[in-house]
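Sorry to interrupt, but I need a hand with the structure work. Could you add the entry underneath, on a fresh line?
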Amino acid sequence: MRSLLTLVCLLELASVARAQSTPAFESNGSAAAASAAQSYAARKKSVALAVTLEALSPIAGMGAFYAHDPDKGTLLAVVSAVAAGAGVGAAFWLIHLDSQHPTGADRWFQDAEQGTAVTVLATAAIAYVVARISGLVLAPEATHEFNENLRQGLGVPPPEPVIPFHALAPGPILSVRF
């Protein structure tokens, strides 16, 4: 009876040990994780490249296009292209009006045209600068969003665990009030 009980216990331990030691399953799981990590590393977008594209391109939104955010990239590209076109047109109109010297009633029309051209030029410059700054701000955000969506889609764990940070100072707390 004693030997039968020992045999049953050993068989039970052996079945547990067999169930826990499956190196083929573990290697397939880690191989899939390694494959996903390699795929993520190959397909992720560079923030530095997105910002560089945005900074070097005369049209805003190139960093967003690089990060696969065509809606925001198209909006910025249209705004910056229209602003640049309006600014160039207003500058040419001012250059054209500079050589004319009307008198009488034509002087009033030239002043209205010149005032409109200056207003369009200033508004276009402001819109272009705002679009460029928005593109420079959007490029890293769109790249991070693309990389995060890619990481989650491939099932790659985050590069570091997210641990909330709570600073606790040991000992007495010193407070100074003014």
